[in-house]
Amino acid sequence: MHPILHEKQQEVVISNARFKVIRAGRRAGKTTLEIEEMLFIAVSKKDRRIFYLAPTQSQARDIIWEALKRRLGKIGIPNETRLEMKVPTQDGGYSIIYIAGWENRENFRGKAADLIVFDELDTMRNFQIAWLEIFRPALLDTKGRATFIGTPKKENPNLRRLEKIAEGDKDYKVFYFTTKDNPFVSELEIKKAKEEMDISSFRQEILAEYVENQGSLFSFSALLDVFSNTIEKENEKYLIVDIADDGSDKTVFSFWEGLEEYKREEFARFNTENIIDKIREYASQDKIPFSHIAVDAIGVGAGVASSSMLDGIIGYKSSYSAIKTDLDIVRLPNVGYTKEIPLVSDYKNLRSQCVFTLAGLVNNHQIASKVDGQAKEKIIEELSTYQDVSKGDGKRMATAKEDIKEIIGRSPDNSDTWIMRMYFVIKEKMLPMKSEEVSRVIEKQNLQFDMNFKNKVVNSSK
Question: Which H or E element spans position 62?
Fold first, then answer.
């Protein structure tokens, strides 16, 4: 028997879009929809290959495998060990549906597919990278399709990423429905859920709305916009070099014109001499002064930063104390105990200061990048994970690098060059009259002092 699809499910089924992005609430009918779509493709023509991926192998078995067997009855030929379903086709042949967990995604590398279904998309780490490397190529020869489906999550906002792509790509179409749209879920149950759940959970799980993580430093939408932003560029150029601790990983050279990253180069297994030579080459080639070059001065980078052949470059260490750039409004000048306004900082360390500074520029669309491909996706994933983890001691602190590594499952090295670039932004605030805040406060104080002086003259003449 064919299941009855509700109106929102039918919209997905009849759509001819190649890539379907489906954001749906819990119990909104996602599993039923996925099974019908896979079976439609499978039975239409022989020798078709359909991939279905859930967050884990165990979930794949629980979510779809048992339901798929019930739907096919004795028609399908299941392989319980491999989680493969052989399906008879209209033209007398067979197609195969492969069921797997996201942790086994490498098993699909190099294989062709007619349809790929990704379920619970926002629980999949490093999704965009795997999509571009493994699964998108699987559709080239077959001109196959893909369906991305899930309920929004804060940790891995893959649905939002794809919805953004869909805005400019006609191959994609976005579908949205809530638990309320499923007529087989009673209104009373939904009402009870609303009463029992906190508002954020209800909006996310039942209404399938995006709920911003209150501690996130970077707006996800603004982060995506960085790669399409058009900003007014400055003439000054900068080179940021990130080096792996032991030199065994890739060394990244990030080139900036003002606040736009215009180029990025990566080299594997560079030693100290290689890195020094390449910095000198790039500095000459792109006309970048040594004073505008920063190097991660950890491990191999320490030898690079201290080289006599690179006199003037900046050795950056994230553990350094934050740079004092803000005015201490408690201790104003010309009041008997100080001649100048002291500068202070309320950041835990230099890295936190740079991360907060970067977040401010990103969220206000004041930074841009021409980077594309894997590097772009990794930067987005890394920066979207940063949180304000201040502990109430008056010092602002961003998520530690080690914690980011644990969350995303790899070291967040790709965004390090962006964070290091902020060193020069912060240093500019220390230059005389560079900071608008310094200028504003000093001007205000001078006006007040002039007024006090005039009042004193007027009073003394009476």
Answer: none
Alpha-carbon distance of 462 to 458, in angstroms, equals: 7
* pLDDT value of position 233: 77
Residue type, 131: W
The reported pTM is 0.72
Those residues whose C-beta lies under 8 Å from the C-beta of residue 399, and which sit 6 or more positions away, are 385, 386, 387, 389
Beta bridge partners of 316: 296
Q: Tell me how far apart the alpha carbons of residues 377 and 414 are, in angstroms, rounded to a whole number.
A: 9
Domain residue limits, the chain: 7-211, 225-430, 436-462
Q: What is the rounded distance in angstroms from the CA atom of residue 147 to the CA atom of residue 312?
A: 53
Domain over 225-430 is classified CATH 3.10.20.30: no
CATH 3.20.20.300 fits 7-211, yes or no: no
Q: Are 147 and 34 in contact (CB under 8 A)?
A: yes
Q: Name which residue leads in pLDDT, 341 or 322.
A: 322
Does 407 have pLDDT greater than 90? no
Q: Is the pLDDT of residue 276 over 80?
A: yes
Q: Are 7-211 and 225-430 equal in CATH topology?
A: no
